[in-house]
Structure formats: C-alpha cells, structure tokens
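forwarding from the other thread:

> can someone predict this with magnesium ion?

sure thing
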Amino acid sequence: MDDWLIYRGVGAPDPDRIHTLPPPPPWRAFSGEPLPDPVPPIDASSTRRLGSRVSAPPAQDARALDLINAALYLRRPLLVTGEPGSGKSTLAHSVAYELGLGRVLQWPVVSRTELKDGLYTYDAIGRLQDAQLAEREQREPDDIGRYIRLGPLGTALLPTRRPRVLLIDELDKSDIDLPNDLLNVVEEGEFALPELERAADRPGQREVHVLSHDGRRVPVRDGRVRCHAFPFVVMTSNGERDFPAPLLRRCIHLHLDPPRDERLAAMVQAHFGAGADEGNLDLISRFTSEDGDGELRPTDQLLNAIYLTQHTVRTDPARREEIAGLLMRPLDTRQR
Ligand SMILES: Nc1ncnc2c1ncn2[C@@H]1O[C@H](COP(=O)(O)OP(=O)(O)O)[C@@H](O)[C@H]1O
Ligand SMILES: [Mg+2]
C-alpha cells in the first residue's frame, strides 16, 4: 500500500498514524494556541454505523482513499456526493475511528439551518432572568460563559492538537446562503463571539469558559475561537443541487458510487463477521443485480435483510427469498 496514505480504510484503529501527517501548506496553517484537553472518545454513533467486526478488507476503493487523504494533507473540507446509502456519512466515522480522532461532531443540515447554529448559541434571555434573580438574592450573577454553547462547527474549530472530525450532513438540504457563509469560516479557521469580544477588556473576562457541543467546559480567549489543527470536515450531499463554484474550488470532491463487490463484502463482514459475505452470496447478488433498472436501493436494506434472514429462516431458502424480497426494494413509496 502507498506510504503517503494516512487513512487507509483498513477498519482497524491506528491512532499514531496521524502524527505522520506533514505540516499544512502555509496557506492552510492556523495559529490557535492548543488546548490541553484530551479528545473525547469515539461513541456509539460511530460503532453502530461501522459495525463491530473490524479487520475487514478496505471499504474504500483506491481513488476514494487518494481523495480522502488529499483532504487530510491539504486541510480542506471533503465534499462527498452520492446516492442515499452509498456510505457518505459513515466515511466521516471511519476516518475518526481509524485515526483515533475521537467522537464525530455531527451537524445535520435542514432547510432552516443557519451558520450561527453551527457556531454557537447565546441564551440572552436566560442570562437576563438569572441576573435579576441574583440581584434579588444579593449575589454575584453567573459568568457569561454559562449562557454560551458552541455548536458542532464551533467545537470543531477549538484549538486541538489532533484534528476533530466534523460531519456536515446533507448540506444540499440547506437554504441558499449556508454554503457561502460556511465557506468564510472554513477559509479563516476562526470566528468571533461578539458577546465575549465586547467584554474581553474587562478584568477577569479575557478568558471565559463556555460549553462545547460535546458537553465540556472549554476556554475561549478574547472572544475568538481560532483553530490549531484544521478539523477533518466531511460535507455530504445527495446531489439534490449544485453548490456555488467558490465552495467547490475550496473542497476536495469525492463521488461515491453505491458499494458493490469488494466494498459491499467488506461492509457485510464489518457488521456480521468474517465470512458473512460468502454465507449471504445469494442476497448480495440479488441486491446488486436488481438495481440494473437504475432504481435506488441503499445498502441499509441489504444489511437489514441479512440480519433478518439470519434470525428467522436460515434453513428454508424459499422463505429466505421471500423475507429478503420484502426489504430489498427500490426507495419509492409507490405500491409495487
Ligand atoms: N465503511 C463501512 N463499514 C461498514 N458499514 C458501512 C460502511 N460504510 C457504510 N456502511 C453501511 O452502509 C449503510 C449506508 O451508509 P451511510 O453512510 O448511511 O450512507 P449515506 O450517508 O450515503 O446515505 C449504513 O447502514 C452503514 O452501516
Ligand atoms: Mg447519510
């Protein structure tokens, strides 16, 4: 295998490899002073998707590996397009798991999502109410940091030594402005919290502790969050719309085809153990052959069918076919 690959898609953790990543190109170097904090460990949302039987063969093809690693080296976001079920979201979890980058920060995008939601929220009303209460009780009001919570993007930009992984999921669902707004923050690798910036010259207010998206209290200095290691950002899209050229220019674009053959076998083994691909060749070949009609049939359906037939009808081929057929259907709610 190529030496330059940091992420190799082998499905086994190798947390030291990230140290072999060379320094960023000068135009992508960031100056945030690193926090001493450890990286929060990987959580169930990653292991659920990846399966628990690691040591499967590579679940990415060579071209995808090259592009994923290009994004890591260049400190650029990876824009992953492809049909539902092609493995876009799981890719972020796979990189975090293998490179020991800890819990994936997830930002699911909907039409109402604004940049601000990803950066931070400030509970001004809560603070006002608490201040009035404190006055009545004749005590000091709580620190402003208690009313600020960083979002997934804001947390990903905290100055950590190891890059965090940020999944901006289904960016194509956003309103028209979000991709451009996002672009500025991703270019600069930093953002301001005006509420803190204004107060930063008051005594004791230079450094304020706020809540991160994953529930830790983290220091913010001078009202700005400035990254150290640029996060590994995965933006996914089901291709429902085109993105503005400036965004495309600053991303690495990877298109994932629906998994077939080796990749599909690797996924099946990741979830059901070594050899599970061979034990379910009938279902796998049915799954891959039936979509010659260009209909969408996400991998989740194959995984569901294998699970169900494993527990119900191991021995009766006809029933097995029947049950699998119930689940493996094109993504279309019209009656068939
Ligand atoms: N590398 C992988 N290893 C194991 N399972 C995977 C892998 N990639 C995808 N899958 C499985 O395939 C299914 C679809 O993947 P997902 O990432 O949700 O697709 P998308 O985001 O493109 O819709 C999930 O059930 C996931 O568990
Ligand atoms: Mg997805």
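The CA atoms of residues 114 and 288 lie 38 Å apart. thats all i got for now
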